[in-house]
Amino acid sequence: MEMTPAWTLTAFALNLVAAIASALVAVILWRKDSGRRERAAMIVALALTAAWCATNAAWGPGTVFASMLETARNLAWIVVVYRLFANDGRDVSIAPIRPLVLSIAFVECLQPAVTMLGLRLAATEKIHDVAFSVSSMLHALVSIGALVLLHNLYAGASAVSRQILRWPAAALGLMWGYQLNLYTIAWFAQSTPGELTGLRGLVVTAAALLFAIGANGRAADIRLAPSRTVAFQTLSLLLIGAYLLAMMLISQSLSLLGGDFGRLTQVGFLLAAAIAALLWLPSARLRGWVRMKALKHLFQHRYDYRAEWLRFTATIGRAGPDAPALPDRAAQALADIAESQGAVLLLPGDDGELEIAGSWQWREIAVPPQCCPSDLVAMFERTGVVVELDQVRAGSDEFGEQAAVPAWMRQDLKIWALVPLLHFGRLVGVTILARPPVARQLDWEDFDLLKVVGGQLASYLAEQAGHEALTEANRFDEFNRRIAFVMHDIKNLASQLSLLARNAQKHADNPEFRKDMLVTLTKSAEKLNALLARLGRYGAAGHAGRSRVDLVALARRVTERFNGIHPVELTRADVCHVLADPDGLEQALVHLVQNGVDASEPGMPVYLDVTCDGLRGSLQVVDAGHGMSPQFVRDSLFKPFVSSKDGGFGIGAFEARELVRAMGGRLDVDSREGLGTRFTVQLPLAAVQAQPSTKTIESEAA
After folding, report:
1. Does residue 441 sit in the same domain as residue 349?
2. Whose CB has fewer CB within 10 Å in the chain, the N or C terminal residue?
């Protein structure tokens, strides 16, 4: 056996690493549990393997000491295999196995004798060659026997024991398989291949790692499960390797005929491969066929559910101005899962009939009016089954689909499947899937996944429909609220005019009354005009139109407004200028005063107080009327359309609070039943709002 200096250095490094790895695993097993018989045998075998690898690294393979250690190592691993039968109690009932174990051990024990004979008669070349052939054959026979024994160990184990034996069996199979390959080649070639001999250290290291994994207490739960991407790449590499091997064999075979047949064959293969790549590799049909075969034969499940769910979530959750509408995304999500070439989503229209709401890569489909009859809708809601149109065309009628599926769906051969979208047993929509590039029959896994995804899509679509309905209801609510505000203001004007008409019957001859009546009528007309101008401002932001407002002047205008209607008095008038919307603040104050007037007895005045604390201005509306209970103030006062007055709209206090809040202020209420009520409007002073805050000044200075 001769190796180049590079391979000699590689063999030294690999054997040294293998010795260290075997020794470490032996120490780990000894510290963990050395009481079990198979563990003790494994520790001894790993220790002998470490010694053998260290000998190969020190003096090189092929020495007498290395050969003796290899025999000891092999015998130890045979004992390990025998002891592993004890995992499920088969060590007491394996009488047929013991002759095989003894035979393997006997053959291995012949190795030292053959080695010593080869050394003693090394001067005779023919005898040396015979000794080498016998040694290689004995090594191969031991490997075969060990593999047979290992097969019996794993194949006859129970399901639970296989989970435990998986990793040790893989390690032993790797070692014995490599040894069989090495010595078979050596026997045929009459020389030990140096490269394969140098790589034995790598094989031993891998086996030691597998033993370490098997020693883990959770080894039974560890599974080697390559992803579909890795599997497809591995399959591609195997196909490429098979192509290269076929090309090499054919070209070498033709080269035996003489001439340039070998080179001609290689060029022909290259030309054929280029043509195949240009014609077939871009084909979606070919890629689909390869994927279908790989999924069918390489995996227990057709779908990688984690990848499918991530893709589904990414498609449905796509956002942005350029993102398709939700119905289009829903159609694409189902088509991606089924590898369909297109999809159409049918949702109920205004009349309740299903119609096209979204599509993906299928604009040309012709969907007639009333595309889904009531029988099909009833079948979907009753069974929730995914309908495969090829089965319907073939005459299948398991769920009554022959009578339910309309004729236009049967006639369009591109339609492949119908997926119902059910939400709480109600049909939200139907997805029509186009035929995939490679036609196949749906199986149980397709049906289950499409049902689950259909239910998830139904929940998204139902949520969107509910959101749209809520938005529309909010728009109508805003419209109704504006109308209610208008009616409330008109009701206040009507009350004032009615009171004015009653007083006119008594005081029509009084010139002062006629003067006040004229003023009141003028102000009522102005108020109606202002009401019309304010209709567009309800619901708008309160920052528009904010300016400096004199609270005292505003309070005096309100008191004058109620002259001749009900006594309203300004009892305190501190100088106070706030930042507010003049019209909105006056409207809020009129609401509060009107509430005080309505709650008070005739002739009992309502008082207005204007105060200032240096930061905020306050305007109080105080009456001595009926008052309100704490429960009514907490639960009903500021709720629209809830009123304690007969015929009231429940709008005044609510609108007043919203108007004040929109200006950056607040409205507080303090009421006692039988004593009266105090409303307090607080607003920021105009001077304070105009000055920059301390933090702003500091930040600008910084």
Report:
1. yes
2. C
Is the residue at 310 inside a domain? no
Cβ-based neighbours of 69, under 8 Å, separated by 6 or more: 48, 51, 52, 55
In the block, tokens 């919203």 appear at 658
Classified as helix, coil or strand, 548 is: strand
218 and 259 together in one domain: no
Length of the chain: 702
Q: Quote the CA–CA distance of 319 and 332 in Å, as a whole number.
A: 15
610, containing H or E segment: strand 606-612
Q: Do 88 and 199 reside in the same domain of the chain? A: yes
Structural contact between residues 582 and 549, judged by C-beta atoms closer than 8 angstroms: yes
Alpha helices in 508-581 (DSSP H): 511-534, 551-561
Q: How far apart are CA 478 and CA 551, in angstroms?
A: 30
Check: CB of residue 91 under 8 Å from CB of residue 105.
no
Q: pTM (2 decimals)?
A: 0.44
What would the two tokens of residue 699 be?
């930040």
AA letter at 635:
D
Burial class for 344, CB neighbours closer than 10 Å (0-12, 13-18, 19+): buried
- Same domain? 204 vs 277: no
pLDDT single digits (tens) 60-73 = 777 888 888 888 99
Write the pLDDT tens digit of every residue in 231-240: 555 555 566 6
CATH number assigned to the domain comprising residue 660? 3.30.565.10
On whether residue 376 sits in a domain, the answer given is yes
Q: Decide if 154 is inside a domain.
A: yes
The amino acid at 179: Q
Give Cα separations from 512 to 495, 516, 517, 519, 523 (angstroms): 21, 6, 9, 11, 17
Contacts of 425 (CB under 8 A, 6+ apart): 381
pLDDT in tens, 258-270: 555 555 665 665 5
The three-point CA angle 691-694-699 to 5° equals 110
**503 contacts 479 by C-beta, under 8 angstroms:** no
Same domain (yes/no): 120, 214: yes
Asked if residue 487 belongs to a domain, the reply is no
Distance of alpha carbon 64 from alpha carbon 45, whole angstroms: 19
CATH number for position 121: 1.20.1070
Pairing of strands 577-580, 616-623: unpaired
Domain termination residue (choose one: 441, 471, 501): 471
Cα–Cα distance list, 228 to 173, 293, 305, 442 (Å):
26, 12, 11, 20
What is the pairing mode between strands 547-550 and 354-360?
unpaired
Nearest C-alpha neighbor of 337 from the set 388, 364, 302: 302
Using the structure block, give the residue that is written with the tokens 């995996």. 299
- Regarding whether 185 and 252 lie in a shared domain, the answer is no
Compute φ and ψ for 218, nearest 5 degrees: -105, 25
How many separate domains does the chain show?
A: 4
Q: How many CB atoms lie within 10 A of CB 189?
A: 10
Same domain membership, residue 437 and residue 353: yes
Q: Using pLDDT thresholds of 50, 70 and 90, give the confidence band for residue 698.
A: very low
Q: Distance (Å, rounded) from C-alpha 170 to C-alpha 615? A: 83
Count H helices and E strands in the chain, helices first.
25, 12
Domain holding 348, by residue range, is 318-471
Same domain for 252 and 139, yes or no, is no
- Token pair belonging to 66: 């290395």
CATH number, domain with residue 347: 3.30.450.40
Q: Are 231 and 294 in contact (CB under 8 A)?
A: yes
Mean pLDDT of 86-111: 72
Instruction: State which H helix or E strand residue 421 sits in.
Output: strand 415-423
Residue 671 near residue 628, CB atoms below 8 Å:
yes
For 401, residues 6+ apart whose C-beta sits below 8 A from its C-beta are: 379, 385, 387, 392
